[in-house]
Write a structure and sequence with these properties.
about 70% helix; mainly alpha; single chain
Length: about 800
């Protein structure tokens, strides 16, 4: 039998593969292990058979074993799948059973809950009458309990009242004070209750016993004070310590002050009650501080009693029809109060303050006395101010006296800044508006008077050279002094908003004065070299200088911050976001707008002044510019160099104008004036004299002599190197006076540089600026130097 070929082997392999696939598919029907028509499965079997059988047909006898092995594996896999599938349904069934049992239990519980709810509702309906009866009983018990408490409280009040009475009968003042304090504490505890009648009864009882104790202690205290020569009306001339039984009096004084301090709590409580206010005499408690800008504690009792004789004296002299009660003389009562403070200071520090310190009372005896006296003055000033709103002269006098009183109170009496004085009375709307109106009215009147005065435009220090550097006219100095006085008046006000209103008034006055200066300047502009025109310029410069200093002043910087924080329209009206930001960062100042207007006015006036001066100098310089520069002899042909005769009028004019400006302008303005004049004169000489003529060697030398030996020294009185302000003329003279060889070299260099610029010469040549700098020429450009070289007439071959 012939050996099978490769083609025959492949054919038999395909048949075997098909039979295997059919066998595996038949045995695994229903499973998803291998799809029947899967090309992937067929490929897998072919690979598997090639691996197990190979191309050797003799090994086909093992196909049966292989098929049997595959069937066993397939059977094992089927058993595993069946086993896993059979385990899942019991677990699901168990879960469903548990859920059904839970649903049944829930249903039973809901039924039980409904049953219990019905029984509870029936029970509540049955017990409702009992609850109603019990509620009525409890309300009755509560009413009885409150009545008992009410009666107990009433009994406690009666017991305290009886205790006070018993203590007063036995002169046990300390025990009586403690009982009154207990009443005050009980009153504070009943403050939130609704027992109004009980509260009224307690307060009446408290006030009754408090007044009795206070009157007794006040009477004894006044007797002791009389023995100590209180009140001290005039300056003390003898020792404050009495000569007879001084130790006993001091002991009584200390005891009474301590007892009055112990009574302070109930006194403070009573002073807050309307009931007490109708029982206390007006003279017992000085005028209230209700008008003060901040709440302050009431005066201590000992000081209140010590103030009684002073209060009676004050009201006797400064109220009613007394001659000392004059609206035109507020200084009488203000000075009197300051004298009382000064005269009483030693007594308060030596007698009262040590007792307060031993009692550990945080009180300054002198400050308390000043507070009490200030109450009297505040009441009087408030009354007078409202009556003087229609009298400008008397109102201004009152304001001046109040400001002076406040200054002496804070400085001489060391009255704390935290406590109110009198200035808050001037901040009432009507009073403050009146003050602003009168301030503006009087300032405008003084402005009119100072501008129309005979010596308005002359300096009062003109005969004192050391003090006349600014050469300020009298009207400007008086005006700024007026503004400074206004600042000093409102500086001490405790309200930044009010201070900003006065600052707005100052800015308005400054702008008004600037407009007036502008009007007068326009009248004098026909002759800017006149004394009045220059005085106006000095005035503008002086005001700008002062405002610049004010912009750096701490007080105005604080006002600037207040204006930013308050957004004050009077000061910041019309400012943009950038300007407000600059004010907030302190880069600008509150006077920045006014300074800009003044600087512009100063620049316009200075420009007009220099223009007028240059017009005159230019007219004098015409003969000099028309001189015969081309025909002047060489320097070696002249014995001595002298000033050109045609330059004399110009030089004299420059000298006279410099002297005149130096005499009439302030130092800073004159610096600007002569420098501006030098700049303009440099331009005129360069354009009209140098560029308009041709120069021989002698003409160039004469020009240089006129400039360096005559013109420049005129300005040498005011600076060390005046030639630096005539750069064009100085450098033009250098070029014109170069010797012929240097001039030829320079001209060739400039020509080569020009050709280099057009690409016709080598780029390796040095720039002409280096050669010009070596000659001392820094300002003139190369083209200007070429023009000047062409103005030279002394070239070889010419």
């Amino acid at each position: 039998m012939a050996a099978p070929t490769a083609a025959t082997a492949k054919s038999m392999m395909k048949k075997l593969t098909g039979s295997l696939l059919e066998s595996v598919y038949t045995s695994s029907k229903g499973s998803e292990c291998l799809p029947a028509d899967s090309g992937t499965g067929r490929d897998y079997l072919v690979d598997f058979l090639e691996k197990e059988v190979g191309s050797d047909l003799k090994s086909l006898k093992n196909v049966g074993d292989l098929l049997e092995k595959l069937r066993e594996e397939n059977s094992g896999l089927e058993k595993q799948v069946v086993t896993v599938s059979s385990c899942v349904p019991p677990k699901v069934s168990a879960a469903l059973s548990a859920a059904e049992e839970a649903a049944c239990s829930l249903k039973d519980l809901l039924q039980k809950e409904q049953l219990i709810s019905n029984k509870l509702h029936q029970h509540l309906q049955g017990t409702q009458p009992w609850m109603d009866n019990l509620g009525q009983t409890l309300n009755q018990v509560d009413t009885i309990e409150r009545n008992v408490k009410y009666l107990r409280c009433l009994q406690h009040i009666e017991e305290l009242s009886a205790a006070v009475q018993q203590c007063l009968m036995t002169s046990s003042v300390w025990e009586a004070i403690r009982a009154v304090d207990n009443m005050a504490a009980l009153d504070a505890g009943l403050n939130q209750s609704g027992c109004s009648h009980l509260q009224d009864y307690l307060r009446e009882t408290l006030h009754f016993w408090h007044k009795i104790i206070k009157d007794r202690l006040a009477s004894d205290f006044e007797k002791v004070l009389i023995q100590l020569h209180w009140p001290i009306i005039s300056p003390p001339t003898q020792s404050l310590t009495p000569t007879a039984n001084g130790q006993e009096i001091n002991s009584q004084l200390e005891l009474l002050v301590a007892q009055l301090l112990a009574l302070q709590t109930s006194d403070d409580l009573i002073s807050q009650r309307p009931l007490a206010s109708c029982h206390v005499a007006p003279s017992t408690q000085p005028a209230s501080l209700a008008t003060a800008p901040s709440q302050v504690p009431p005066l201590c009792l000992p000081i209140q009693i010590m103030l009684l004789p002073l209060s009676r004296r004050f009201r006797y002299h400064f109220y009613g029809n007394r001659q000392t009660n004059s609206l035109s003389k507020p200084e009488w009562y203000l000075t009197q109060v300051l004298m009382w403070m000064g005269n009483s200071s030693a007594f308060m520090e030596e007698k009262i303050q040590p007792i307060l310190d031993r009692a550990e009372a945080p009180i300054s005896a002198m400050v308390e006395l000043c507070r009490g006296l200030l109450c009297l003055v505040q009441e009087k000033v408030a009354s007078d101010a409202s009556r003087l709103l229609y009298d400008d002269v008397l109102f201004c006098h009152l304001v001046e006296e109040v400001l002076q009183f406040e200054k002496e109170l804070r400085s001489n009496q060391s009255y704390p800044q935290a406590l109110p004085g009198l200035l808050h009375l001037l901040l009432e709307d009507a009073t403050l508006q009146k003050w602003l109106t009168v301030e503006k009215k009087m300032a405008v009147e003084k402005m009119d008077a100072m501008l129309s005065a005979e010596g308005a435009w002359s300096s009062q220090y003109k005969d004192i050279s050391d003090m006349d550097e600014l050469k300020t006219p009298d009207c400007a100095e008086t005006f700024m002094t007026l503004l400074q006085v206004i600042t000093e008046r409102y500086r001490a006000l405790p309200c930044p908003s009010a201070q900003l209103k006065f600052l707005g008034l100052q800015r308005e006055l400054l702008d008004d004065f600037r407009i007036r200066l502008t009007q007068v300047m326009k009248e004098e502009s026909r002759f800017p070299l006149g004394a009045r025109y220059c005085a106006i310029l000095n005035a503008v410069n002086y005001i700008s200088t002062i405002l610049g200093d004010w912009g750096d002043n701490v007080f105005f910087l604080q006002l600037q911050q207040a204006a930013v924080s308050l957004g004050e329209e009077v000061v910041m009206g019309g400012l943009g976001v950038m300007e407000v930001g600059r004010l907030a960062s302190l880069e600008g100042s509150l006077f920045e707008g006014l300074l800009a207007l003044l600087d512009r006015l100063k620049g316009d006036m200075m420009g007009r002044l220099l223009e007028w001066t240059m017009r005159e100098i230019t007219e004098k310089a015409k003969p000099y510019s028309q001189d015969r520069w081309l025909s002047l002899p060489a320097q070696q042909d002249q014995s001595t160099m002298t000033l050109s005769s045609s330059a004399c009028p110009m030089m004299l004019c420059v000298r006279d104008r410099l002297l005149n400006l130096h005499q009439v302008l302030s130092f800073s303005l004159f610096q600007l004036a002569w420098q501006g004049l030098a700049e303009r004169l440099d331009h005129v000489l360069y354009q009209d004299v140098i560029l308009s003529n041709h120069f021989s060697e002698g003409g160039a030398a004469q020009l240089q002599f006129d400039m360096t030996r005559n013109l420049f020294p005129l300005f040498g009185h005011y600076c060390k190197r005046p030639e630096n302000f005539f750069k064009h003329v100085k450098e033009a003279c250098i070029i014109l006076c170069l010797n012929v060889g240097s001039a030829i070299l320079l001209r060739n260099l400039l020509k080569e540089s020009e050709e280099q610029g057009t690409g016709l010469a080598s780029a390796e040549d040095p720039p002409p600026e280096c050669a010009l700098n070596e000659l001392g020429v820094y300002c003139l450009a190369s083209c200007d130097v070429s023009i000047l070289l062409n103005l030279r007439a002394s070239w070889p071959g010419q």
